[in-house]
């Protein structure tokens, strides 16, 4: 049964993008959970929420986000932001590839977009949170860059798997 059949021509691609973004982000989260289980440091989503909370108050950059004043509901805000950005990145992929890609996805465009999304943490989030461009102010910048690149590659794989799964279900 095709859950998208009853949607309007405008709502269908929006629903597909949202589903792809949520599922791809969930794939990345499973990856991050696996890393945590292996004692590999991963992102604290409360810090994303803290940054977004301060951003809403006009503060963009911090010397160290961990030292910034906590924001009420920062963990939930961080998770919400994480999934909203995942949906936005899925939208970027569909905008670049078109709706034909959604109906018949291929791996390479999804991986390319996943890898390209590493620009967000390297050039926006990390500098704004006080860790420098591409984690340059951290004790192990190259290790952190590699982790970000791998994490976003997993997100790219998730974009493909989500789109392929949805395409299979709706056939």
TrEMBL record:
Keyword Glycosyltransferase found: no
Record's keyword terms, sorted: Membrane, Transmembrane, Transmembrane helix
InterPro entries attached to this UniProt entry: DUF2938
Record's keyword annotation contains Amino-acid biosynthesis: no
Positions of transmembrane segments: 14-35, 75-95, 107-128, 149-170
Superkingdom of the organism of origin: Bacteria
Name of the molecule in the record: DUF2938 domain-containing protein
Organism: Caenimonas sedimenti
């Amino acid at each position: 049964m095709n859950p998208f059949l009853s949607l309007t021509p405008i709502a269908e691609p929006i629903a597909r993008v949202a589903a792809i973004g949520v599922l791809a982000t969930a794939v990345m989260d499973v990856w991050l959970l696996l890393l945590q289980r292996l004692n590999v440091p991963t992102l604290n989503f409360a810090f994303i929420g803290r940054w977004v909370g301060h951003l809403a108050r006009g503060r963009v950059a911090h010397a160290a986000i961990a030292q910034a004043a906590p924001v009420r509901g920062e963990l939930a805000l961080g998770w919400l932001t994480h999934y909203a950005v995942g949906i936005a990145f899925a939208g970027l992929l569909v905008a670049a590839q078109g709706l034909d890609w959604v109906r018949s996805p291929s791996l390479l465009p999804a991986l390319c977009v996943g890898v390209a999304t590493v620009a967000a943490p390297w050039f926006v989030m990390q500098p704004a949170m006080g860790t420098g461009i591409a984690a340059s102010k951290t004790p192990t910048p190259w290790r952190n860059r590699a982790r970000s690149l791998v994490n976003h590659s997993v997100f790219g794989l998730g974009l493909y798997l989500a789109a392929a799964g949805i395409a299979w279900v709706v056939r």
